[in-house]
Amino acid sequence: MKLNIALLAGDGIGPEVIDQAVKVSDAIAKKFNHEITWRPALTGAAAIDAVGEPYPDSTHEICASSDAVLFGAIGHPRFDNDPSAKVRPEQGLLKMRKKLGLFANVRPTFTFPSLLDKSPLKRERIEGTDLVFLRELTGGIYFGEKGRRDDGETAFDNCVYTRAEVIRLAKKGFELAMTRSKKLCCVDKANVLETSRLWRETVQAMEKDYPEVEVSYEFVDAVAMRLVQWPNSYDVLITENLFGDILTDEASVISGSMGLMPSASLGADIGLFEPIHGSYPQATGLNIANPMATVLSAAMMFENFGLQAEGTAIRDAVNSALEKGMVTEDLADGAKSYGTKEVGDWLAANI
Q1: What pTM was computed for the model?
Q2: Does position 293 have pLDDT exceeding 90, yes or no?
Q3: Which of 31, 183, 249, 259 has the smallest number of Cβ neighbours within 10 A?
Q4: Quick check: is 189 catalytic?
Q5: Which residue in the list 80, 130, 235, 249 is annotated as catalytic?
Q6: Given pLDDT bands bounded at 50, 70 and 90, which one contains residue 116?
């Protein structure tokens, strides 16, 4: 297969972890006889520094004309520490999601047998956890009208959803549930929020189209609690933008490190694949960042193309590295650790 992949390294540790995902992907291409053309482009703080905006038109043209996007991370402390900044790296990510139509964020959370005791939760609570969040990405409070009034003393952020936005996200959730254990949980706050009541009634109306799927409805605060108590009781969960942003970060630490969890953002035509961690600016250039989440995001990318064996080969290499202690310092627990580049080299060679 010939693949054109947009490569958005971004900021902080983004370029370092992306380099390792490229190494691994190139090893997969060689092993399975594929041809990958990488198409680098600027985004985030790097793009602001170069052209004054975080997601320039030239980057969008590259992304829109590619088969997929492999993305690192964005963010820089000089913007985080300046509340008055008019242009921010994160605006580029929101703009990219909107312009590419990436409305469904797919965030798996699973455990690794060799790392069960590194989780902040007890082994018996997390063993067997294998859940997937589908978070709506292009609507809700992040994209609603926002502003100040009363001479800046009052601020507002409007949360707005249309039924069509809920249907297209829920449809992906039902379809994913059909390929797994046929359990779907709709996460909302329907006892308080009108948008949540729209979500709940819309999903309830769709149940008849998927009679094999067992659907539950839970308030977001209850899910936040149960993710800590019994995460292995969930399978596929669907939710709106803000709730999903918070809950997926909570779920991500179950595995023992945010540096392990991949994600995908999907739309009608193109997918974007990225690690869930941030740009970790303190580690930039130190060769200590964990590249495995980015590498596993590349596995999701191959699987999205229908290349299951390729994805499995990457996952097997990662599991082997974890079992053998070929890990960066965040997972070493006082034992010998290896650099970002060394881990990437090992994974590629193992493949």
Answers
A1: 0.89
A2: yes
A3: 31
A4: yes
A5: 249
A6: confident
